[in-house]
Amino acid sequence: MAELSHSLENLEKIGKDNPVAISAVVKLIASSQQERTHWMLADYLGKIATNNSEAISALVNLIWSSPNETTQLKAATSLAKIEKDNSVAIDTLVNLIRNSQDGLTRRKAIFSLCEIGTDNPVAIETLVELIGTEPDRPLLLKAANILGQIDKYNQIASEFLVKIIRDFEVKNILIPATGILNKIGKDSANGIVEALVEIMENTENDLKRIQVVWCLANIAKNKQVAIEALVNLINKCDDESILLRAAGRLGDIHKNNPVAIGTLVKLISTSQDKDILWGATGWLGEISKNNPVSISALVELIRNSCDEHIRLQAAESLEKIDKDNPLVVATLVELIRNSGDKNTRWQVADGLREIMKGKHFATAVSGLKDCLTSEISENDSNLYEICYRVIWDCAQNMTYPDFYQAWHTQPTNSPIPDRNHPQNTDIPTLLKQLQPTDKTFPVPLNIRALEGETDTSAIAQELCTQLYQTIFPADTDIPAIRNAPEFKRLIPQLKNRLQKQHIALILHSCPCEDALSSFTRKLADTHMGIHIAWITDTPLELPLIGFPVDGDDLLDAVQSWVGGISS
Predict the structure, then answer these.
(1) How far is residue 345 from each of residues 72, 125, 328, 384, 386, measured CA to CA in Å?
(2) Cα 176 from chain centroid?
């Protein structure tokens, strides 16, 4: 056997599809009476021959002449490699799967049949037969993966995978099953999305819940289904790992989603787990765009964290969220100046040099100039060199008067925006920071388009459209309504989708004129769970609530009102 192995090694040096090597192996097969020799030679032919008639004929003869199942298996497997869809190879594998009494032989035959591909009808029919009958779960998962790639059989494969996910709790089954479903699952498959939602809501297995969240977010074509399921999960869950993944997936589907951002910000503020902090910080950079809540949380984290890896992650996320924001630039400058970690300094400086433009150059110069002293050069040459390079870049892009002024301006730490007491200069942005409570979902609506409008049907439709676009951005089928009663009929359905008992509308950016005031008074109904507040200086009558445009702590006041509903 050792001598044969050495001979095959010498033949292999000749190269693939070499007729001399193939003929030599075929002759060895014909002359040998040893099954183990046949196994080795059959394997070898599968490696060196492609569509070669001599090799095909030799393997077919070997299958027909040998009673040994292992010989048949190895010959059929190599034959299928040499000639795709060879009928003898497929028939042999199918026969072994159906009739062999040896579990290992059946398993290897199934594996070989799966390797043949998705376009052979006999192989496909055999794999379909296996679904639900073969006890070897890993092999069934492989079969489901093959079938799921064929439109005709996608439903069968998807249903099987959902059943596996529902019935099994162990990691080595759940992870591959959800991974395959994530790849092959289609929203068009009947009941698959609904089944995943049901599993997610009812399972006590944290790993299963996390894996299903991942699947659901990718499969659901109607993203609102996934959004509602994820919001519901976040509202019910207190496990940090699940909250992290659910919030991340929610924000991935719906950028700047207030529930997702609020959850990640809370994790950053409260978690003691470095992995959770790392993940929440990274997710904020992926799902936020020009979001002041995210920026504030990350700036605060950079100021207060002692973990340089977390601070660097937060800096990178800030650059993604709003690279043109003066606060972001000032925070990066401050981090370079104050960090004691060389890697953090270098990476933040590289990021800063890429995003700086306009007035940012002056911020960097004034913030880093005090690091260019002989004392720092002697005691911390790394900091000196980094600051020198950044300031040199700035100098290349500034006029001399601007550089002179920046050089003689004292650096100041950029204030962290207080999420509890922000300024009211940008009410739309401010109100986006409102957070849902256990019972109430706040919905700020910019109704500038309704200024001067007196037609009731136009007011009703615009408010309805704004509401749907704000809370269900994926919805394209917005109801047509004409008045307050028709609007009210939508409220139970909306509350059910949001999984909340109350909806709080906060109307802004439009004068509270008579027609609008009259309509919103008719719409507000505490018993139905629809509450309305205006950001206006106009005095209002109950059930409407008013908050002055320039009132102190506007965000805090509105959030307190939302929190007090039904309490």
Answers:
(1) 64, 61, 15, 11, 7
(2) 18
Residue with tokens 């320039």: 550
Structure tokens, 11: 């033949």
Cα–Cα distance between 455 and 296 in angstroms, integer? 41
pLDDT reported for residue 310: 92
Which of 57, 67, 68 has the alpha carbon at shortest distance from 26?
A: 57
Look at residue 530 and give its three-state secondary structure.
Answer: strand
pLDDT for 420 equals 42
For residues 25 and 48, the answer to whether their CB atoms sit within 8 Å is yes
Q: Residue 396 and residue 466: Cα distance in Å, rounded?
A: 47
- Residue 367 and residue 336: Cα distance in Å, rounded? 9
Question: What gap in Å lies between CA 290 and CA 428, rounded to an integer?
Answer: 13
Buried b (16+ CB within 10 A) or exposed e, 74-105: bbbbbbbbbbeebebbbebbbebbeebeeeeb
Residues 38, 58: contact at Cβ < 8 Å? no
Give me the pLDDT at residue 155, please.
80
pLDDT at 414: 54
Q: Kindly give the parts of the chain with pLDDT less than 50.
A: 1, 416-425
